[in-house]
Amino acid sequence: MSQENKLNPMSSSESVKSEKKKSKTKEATGNTLVIVESPTKARTIRNFLPANYRVEASMGHIRDLPQSASEIPLKLKGEKWAQLGVNTETNFEPIYVIPKDKKKIVKTLQDALEDADELLLATDEDREGESISWHLVQILKPTIPVRRMVFHEITKEAIKESLTQCRDVNENLVKAQETRRILDRLVGYTLSPLLWKKIAYGLSAGRVQSVSVRLLVQRERERRAFKKSSYWDLKASLEQAAAPFEAKMIGLNGKKLANGADFDENTGLLAKGKDVILLNESQAKALQASIEGKPWKVVSIDEKKVSKKPSPPFTTSTLQQESNRKLRLSARDTMRVAQNLYEQGWITYMRTDSVHLSNQALEASRNCVQEMYGSNYLSPEPRQYTTKAKGAQEAHEAIRPAGSTFKTPQETGLAGRELMLYDLIWKRTVASQMAEAQQTNISVQLEVQSNQSSFQSGVSDQALFRASGKRIDFPGFFRAYVEGSDDPDAAIEDKEIILPPIKVGDSPSCKSIESLGHETQPPARYTEASLVKMLESEGIGRPSTYASIIGTIADRGYAQLVGNTLIPTFTAFAVTALLEKYFPDLVDTSFTAKMERILDDVAAGEAEWLPYLKDFYSGGKGLENQVKERDSAIDPQEARSIILEDLSSGAVHIGRYGAYLEVEKDGNPVKANIPKDLTPADLSPDKIEYLLKQKIEGPEKLGVHPETGESIFVLLGIYGPYVQLGEITEETPKPKRASLPKGVAPEQATMEMAVGLLALPRTLGTDPASGGRIQANLGRFGPYVVCDRGKDGKDYRSLKAGDDVTTIELERALEILAEPKVGRGSRSTTPIKEFGNRPETEDMIGVYTGPYGHYIKCGKVNAGLPKDFNIEELTLEKALEMIKEKEASAPAKKGGFRKANKANSKAEIKSAKPKSKASTKTKATTKTKAKKEEAQEKEVEVKATKPRIIKKLVSTTP
After folding, report:
1. Cα-Cα-Cα-Cα dihedral of 372, 374, 380, 381, to 10°?
2. What does the domain layout of the chain look like in residue ranges?
3. Comparing C-alpha atoms, which of 418, 519, 241, 451 is closest to residue 850?
4. 349 catalytically annotated
5. Count of C-beta atoms within a 10 Å radius of residue 828
6. Angle at CA 600, nearest 5°, toward 597 and 604?
7. Average pLDDT over residues 561-571
8. What are phi and psi of 223, to 5 degrees?
9. How far is Cα 716 from Cα 683, in angstroms, rounded to an integer?
10. How many alpha carbons fall within 13 Å on the CB side of residue 693?
11. pLDDT digits (tens, 9 = 90+) for 636-675
C-alpha cells in the first residue's frame, strides 16, 4: 500500500492536536461524526448515541474503479491499459474515482467533518465494509482521531459496547477486498470485449459468474444426454385389525427388485454391476394377476429409534437457500430484506459464514424455548455449532434475532416479506437450542406366494413386500422449525406414517393390488437454492456475492428463471463452450476455489497479493497473453454456433436478435428464429421440424373467422406462440395478433380459443356502483379484468384459476373486482389504479404494488401509502396532495449534531442576504469556469497515472 494512502496520515504537530482532541472526546465535550453506509442504518444508530454524535450515510462506496472515460481525469488518459481502470504495468495500482452521484455526498461528509473532534467509521464488519471505511479516510483526509466502530447488531447494548471497543481499519481485509475487486475487473474487462467481438455485443464474463453459468450448462447437457428408462413394481393395499396400510414390492424369489436408486443418475440406464430383477409392464401385470387372492404373511418387523438434531442457525448461504425453498424469495431479494431487518435493528449482521452463537444469543434462545414450549423441549445443555467454512473470520455470529431478548414475530410489528424472513430466522435460531426429535422407523416385510412360475421354471414366484412406518415419539425442535416446511405442526403430521398393531406371523388381508410403472428422471435443474449450495460446497465465490451473481446471470440472458428453476439459454451454451475451449482454467471450479483460498490468505495476512496478481494476469500463461494469443484463433462463426449432440439436422447460431436455426433445404439455407422461452433442453427434433415448416411453408392456418371471413393463423414467434387474424399485406402491415395463454402449445390452439383471444379486450358491461366500463383482457402477467372508474383511475384484478378470459361474464368479474388486492411481492410496471395525468407536468399518476406495499407514482416521485390505507378511498385530489408532500420533504436537510454550531449560523446569515441578477450570473459563469478547470485537474484520488478507458464496458459481477 503506497505511502500516501496510509490510514489517517497526520504530521507530528497534527498528532499532538489529535491526542488532545482524543482526550477531549473521552470527556464527551466534543462532537463525534459517525459514518455508516445507509440512511436506514443511520436513523437506527442515531437513537442509541449521545446528543453530541452526528450520524451520516456514505450511501455505500464513495469511490470505485472508473466505469467510463468521462470519469477519468484528462491528464490520466492515453495509456493502453486504461480501459481496465488498473495499471497493470505498475504494481496493479487501481484508479479510484468519485462517481458524479457521490460528489454531493462527499461534500456533505467533508462539511460534517469540519465540526467534528473525532471520526468513527461504523460500516459493516466484513471486507466490503472495511474497504468503504478505508476509502472514506483516503477521501476525507481527517486530521482528527479516527477509530473503527464494529458491531454485529444494531441494539442499544451493542452500540454502547462498540464505543468502548473501537479498533483501527484492518488493512489486510482492505487489501483482500481490493485484490478481489482488481481480479474481477481484470477478468470481466478483458474477456467481455472478446465475447462482444466473437459472439454478441453486451455479453459479460465474470470470475465467478462464468463458473456459475457453466454449472447450469453442464447440468443441462446431462439432461440432454439422459435416456429415460422404465421399471415396474407392485403396490398393495392391505388391512390389519380394520386399519389400512400400504406395502410396496421390493424383491422376487430372493432377489432384489430394481428401483430408482439402481439406475445411473447421469445416463438414466441401469447401473453397471447391479444384480437386480428389472420388471417390464407385461411381467408386472402377470405377476399381479398371479398373486391376487393369495394369502399374505408377515415375516419380519424391524424397529429402529432415531434422534434428529436441529439445523445450525443461519449463515448467509443457508438463509438464501431456505428462503428460496420456503418463501420463494430470490437470493437478491432475500439479501435486500435481510439488509433492511439488520439496519432496523431486528437481526444481526446478515453477511456471515459463521454458525456460532454468542452467550447472549444462547440465553435469549433458551429463554424463548422455556417460555413458549416448556423445559422438556429445551436441550439439556446450550448447543453450540462449529463453522466448517474456511475463512469464516469475517463475522463472529450466525444470523439471529438481535438483542438480549428475542421478540417474537408477532411482537415486531413487521409485515410482508420482512415479517416472513424474520419469522424464518427466529424459528431457526430458537430451534437450534431445542431438544432433539425422537422418532421410531418401522419396517415390516411381508411375503405372498403366486400360483405360477414366471421367472424360475417349476417354482412358484415368491414376492417380497415392505410396509414402512414412522412414529414421532417426541417432536423436540420439530415443534418450532422443520427445514423446508412452512408449518411445523403439519410437517410433524407429514413425517408420521402410522402402521396398525402387527406382529410376525400375522396374515393381513389384501384389499387390492396394482402394478405401477416408473420412469427414471434426468438430473434436476438448479434452483437458486441448489446453485447457492453448490457454489458454497465447491468454495466458489463468497456467500455475500451469490445474490448479485445469480441476478447478473438472469439479467445478462444466460438463464431464464422459470418458477424457481434456472434454465440456461443458448447464449449460455455458446459462451461456456468458448471459455471451456480457450480459457478452461477460468471456468474450472477447482481453479476458482483456489483463487478464493488465496484471497482468504491475503485477508489473514498469510499471502502477498501483488505476486499473485502479476502471475495471474501478466505471467507467461497469464490472462493478458492468453487473450492476445487466442483472439486470432477464435472463429466468430464457430463461436456463435452451438453443438447439440442429439440433433442430427440443422445448426443453432447466436444472432443479433437471439438464437436461430439454419439448415440446408434444396441447396438453399433456411433460417428460423427460436422463441426466447424455448431452451436448449426443449429443442427436440419435432420442435425443429415445426419451426422449419412454419418458415418454409408459411404459418399454419387454423380456420376462418366466423364474422370477418379472414383466415386465422397460428405462429411461433421469438416471444412464444400467438394467433394472427389475416395475412400481412401493404394495406394491413400489422394484422391483429394475440398471444396464446401461458402453457398452451401451438398445436393445442382451437378455433374457439383463437376467436376469443382475437376479440380481446372484451367489454363485459358497467360497474353498478361507479358506472365504469369493465373489460377482460390478457396482459403481461396473465388474464385480468379492469374497471375504469373515471377520475379515480383504473382498478385491475388478475383472474383466478379456472376463469377463462374469453368467456368470463360480468357477474364473475364484479366478484373478482370486489376482492382486496394482493401484491405480487415485487414492484409492478402495471398500475393497479390510475388517476390520469398531473396538470402541471403531464406525468401519469397511478397506484402501484411494491415489495413493501402500495405506493403512488408520479414521474420520478414515489409516495408510500400506509399499510392500513384503503386504496378504494384514494382520490385524485388526495393523491396530488401526497405527491406534493413527498416533493416538499425530498430536499430535507441531513441530520447533524444536535447542538447548534457556528458554521450553521454563518450559513444561515449568508443565505439570508438577497442576491442580485448580476451576482447570480457571475456565480454561474464562475461555476462553469470552475467545472472546466476541474476536468483538467486531478479531482479524484488515484494510485496510477495516465489511464484511458476507450468505451464504457459492461459492468461485471465476480
Report:
1. 30
2. 3-63+98-169, 179-226+527-639, 230-302+439-469+503-519, 316-435, 699-758, 781-889
3. 418
4. yes
5. 15
6. 140
7. 88
8. -65, -40
9. 14
10. 10
11. 999 999 877 656 566 899 988 788 888 877 778 888 888 8
Rounded Cα distance between 843 and 932, Å, is 35
Tell me: the pLDDT tens digits for 624-633? 999 999 999 9
Q: Catalytic residue among 53, 96, 189, 349, which?
A: 349
- Secondary structure (H, E, C), 657-675: CEEEEEEEECCEEEEEECC
d(CA 648, CA 483): 45
The CA-to-CA distance between both ends of the chain, in Å, stands at 23
The answer to whether residues 846 and 834 touch, using CB atoms and an 8 Å cutoff, is yes
Spell out the residues 6+ positions from residue 508 whose beta carbon is closer than 8 angstroms to its own: 238, 239, 240, 245, 296, 298, 446, 502
In this prediction, residue 873 carries a pLDDT of 67
Residue recorded with cell 485477508: 603
Q: What are phi and psi of 765, to 5 degrees?
A: 150, -155
CA atoms of 765 and 809, how far apart (whole Å): 9
Contact at 8 Å (CB) between 525 and 217?
no
pLDDT at 646: 57
Contact indicator for 379, 324 with CB cutoff of 8 Å: no
Residue whose cell numbers read 504494481: 91
d(CA 204, CA 206) in angstroms, rounded, equals: 7
The residue ranking higher by pLDDT, 110 or 21, is: 110
Phi-psi category of 334—alpha, beta or left, where left has phi over 0 and alpha has psi -120 to 50?
alpha
Distance between CA 827 and CA 848 in Å, rounded?
Answer: 7
Helix 589-603 vs helix 171-198: angle between axes, to the nearest 10 degrees?
Answer: 150
Least confident range of 130-139, 170-179, 488-497: 488-497
Residue 277: all three cell numbers together: 430383477
How many CA atoms, within 13 angstroms, populate the side-chain half-sphere of residue 722?
Answer: 15
Return the top range by mean pLDDT from 133-137, 789-793, 817-821, 934-938: 133-137
Overall CATH class of domain 179-226+527-639: mainly alpha
Strands (DSSP E) contained in 705-838 are 711-717, 720-725, 737-739, 762-766, 773-779, 782-788, 794-798, 833-837
User: What's residue 894's pLDDT?
Assistant: 42
Q: What superfamily would CATH give domain 230-302+439-469+503-519? A: Topoisomerase I, domain 3 (2.70.20.10)
Topology of the domain comprising 316-435: Topoisomerase I; domain 4 (1.10.290)
DSSP labels for 664-715? EETTEEEEEEPPTT--GGG--HHHHHHHHHHHHH-PEEEEE-TTT--EEEEE
Residue type for 15, please?
S
The predicted pLDDT at position 647 comes to 60
pTM as predicted: 0.73
Distance of CA 673 to CAs 660, 667, 687, 699, Å? 4, 20, 12, 14
3-63+98-169: which CATH architecture? Answer: 3-Layer(aba) Sandwich (3.40)
Residue 226 identity: F
Tell me how far apart the alpha carbons of residues 250 and 252 are, in angstroms, rounded to a whole number: 7
d(CA 233, CA 248): 8
Band the pLDDT of 101: cuts 50, 70, 90. Answer: confident
Find out whether 550 and 957 touch, Cβ atoms under 8 Å.
Answer: no
Contacts with 138 (C-beta within 8 Å, 6 or more apart), sequence order: 5, 63, 96, 941
CB 142, CB 118: distance < 8 Å? no
Return d(Cα 661, Cα 672) in angstroms, integer: 5
Amino acid occupying residue 495: K
Cα separation, 796 vs 626, in Å, equals: 56
Q: How far apart are CA 198 and CA 631, in angstroms?
A: 9
